[in-house]
Amino acid sequence: MSRYSHDEQFFHGKAESLGVLIVNLGTPDEPTTPSVRRYLKQFLSDERVVEIPRAIWWFILNGVILRRRPAASAKLYESVWEKDGSPLLSISKQQQQALQQEMSVRFNGPVHVELAMRYGNPSMLKGLQALRSKGAQRLLVFPLYPQYSAATTATSYDAVSAEMKRWRWIPEIRFINHYHDHPRYIKALAQSVKAHWEKHGRNEKLMMSFHGLPKRNLELGDPYHCQCHKTGRLLAEELGLKKEEWVLTFQSRFGRAEWLKPYTDKTLESLAKSGVKGVDVVCPGFSVDCLETLQEIALENKEVFEEAGGKQYSYIPALNADGEHIQVLADLIQQHTQGWPETDKGWSEAVQETNNQKTQALAKACGAKL
């Protein structure tokens, strides 16, 4: 039996296209305990996400975490669930649709944009197979994590590579692994902060909260910590902030090990106790609002700040499917696909059809079966 999965049948002159796979972390299918358990098992079983010896981690994961955490997490997901389902998934679909429209305008040749979640649905397998079925012989994989980390960006690469091992005919592949200091991304962040201030007023301190990682990851060479700090510095400069007007922190720590500091919740508590009355919080590492922003930052950490004496707390939403954000992502796609036929101004469906006919004629002259 062949080791390869079923491939789309090859024939001479077959129409080709450019495929773009945008990737985000993932979400349970439903805010229920069984669904959350399935999602967490897939997520926390990834060796890049949890770098603990497998034998030890297996007992911790299956004997403790998957017995206790799913029910509590399901309640948290339920608190942010919308009519259309998971906010992360519904907003990601809006991004995919907007990018499909934008890239169809920017490129002359056929381009297809698909969405995949690293964990959960729509799966990486489904996204890649959808692009293959549309003739994508050039593939750009775009994980929507501005700052690179092995636990996010690299594991997306792993998933693509694992699937490609099962394909007989693999496409040309390019991969975007960060955009933490892209000028237009920084400007888009600054615009969102300014727009929020214009509408809701400005508090004393701007907190930039990034998702945390174990400190060990930094010590082993992961660049995430440094890239977060660069994003924060560039955003502060774009906003014209003084050193005392902003602070950078890390959220969502888990377990007993030391994580990247300073911690978001502890910093909020300290600020309130020191006399800071108002804080605005933005999360520049999240391209889409999700449980970590809508529940942990917007709700839980607001309580932390207020219980410590703070008065005004405001969460600034992620860039989501905002028009300027879509332009940022489209710019990155265009930048990383330079040199491929679809980006050529002379490329058109008519030219492609003519080329296909010539290819078929030449193949037939060589004795190929068409």
Q: What's the overall geometry?
A: globular
Structural class: alpha/beta
Mean pLDDT value: 92
Unreliable segments of 5+ consecutive residues:
none
Strand content: 15-25%
What's the main sheet like?
A: 4 strands, parallel
Number of helices: 12
C-alpha Rg (nearest Å): 23 Å
- What fraction, in percent, of the residue positions are helical? 40-55%
Q: Please give the order of strands in the largest beta sheet.
A: 2-1-3-4
Strands, count:
8
The topology string of helices and strands comes to EHHHEHEHEHEHHEHEHEHH
How far apart, in Å, are the first and last alpha carbons?
26 Å
What does this structure look like?
The protein has 370 residues and is an alpha/beta fold. Helix content is 49%, strand content 15%. It has twelve helices and eight strands. The chain has helices at 33-44, 54-80, 87-106, 124-133, 150-164, 183-200, 215-219, 224-239, 264-273, 291-307, 323-336, 349-365; strands at residues 17-27, 111-120, 136-143, 172-175, 205-211, 246-251, 278-282, 312-316. Strands 2-1-3-4 form a four-stranded parallel β-sheet, with helices on both faces. The chain has a four-stranded parallel β-sheet with strand order 6-5-7-8, with helices on both faces. Helix 3 crosses helix 11. The longest helix has 27 residues, at 54-80. The model has no long low-confidence stretch (mean pLDDT 92).
Pick out its properties.
single chain; 370 residues; alpha/beta; four-stranded parallel sheet; 15% strand; globular
List the helices and strands and how they pair.
Blueprint: E1 17-27, H1 33-44, H2 54-80, H3 87-106, E2 111-120, H4 124-133, E3 136-143, H5 150-164, E4 172-175, H6 183-200, E5 205-211, H7 215-219, H8 224-239, E6 246-251, H9 264-273, E7 278-282, H10 291-307, E8 312-316, H11 323-336, H12 349-365
Parallel strand pairs: 1-2, 1-3, 3-4, 5-6, 5-7, 7-8
Helix pairs in contact: 1-2, 3-11, 6-8, 9-10
